[in-house]
Fold this sequence. Notes:
CATH superfamily of the largest domain: Saposin-like
Radius of gyration: 21 Å
Number of strands: 0
CATH class of the largest domain: Mainly Alpha
Largest sheet: none
Strand content: under 5%
Shape: globular
Helix content: 55-70%
CATH topology of the largest domain: NK-Lysin
Distance between the termini: 65 Å
Mean pLDDT: 87
Number of helices: 9
Amino acid sequence: MRAVLLIVVVALLGMASAAKKNPKECEVCKKVVxxxxxxxxxxxxxxxxxxxxxxxxxxxCRETKNHKEGRFCYYVGAADDAATGLVREVTQPLSRFLxxxxxxxxxxxxxxxxxxxxxxEPVDLSKIDLExxxxxxxxxxxxxxxxxxxxxxxxxxxxxxxxxxxxxxxEL
Length: 172
């Protein structure tokens, strides 16, 4: 009797721990979808206008420099080279005032890769020595944290100088 009770308790604890959600799940999707809604509202248009929402999604996807957001746009078909067409799967639920997480859960059922996208952890610039980093890492820091490509940077010192300029601006 005790053994059966013990097995039931262990099974329930296992199911409870499996039910915990990952806070980073669908992180990129939720952020992009909420930015689309904010863009539509800033333009003074109504979210129920599917065409305006779709245009805002296309515009955001064309202008994004973040690799993860670009991947999201590719997966939903809002990129120029995308092979899929899930754009209406994003805009239709938004027109019915579904929140971003509900839209992303619907998209997850269509394509599980959409919710596998997660942002990289930002690098703490106060803890690393920029002089010892490779140019590839410096470019990644500029791209991910500052959304900057550093046009005209040729040498490592140029990248370091640009990172320090942008981090000083960000602290203000």
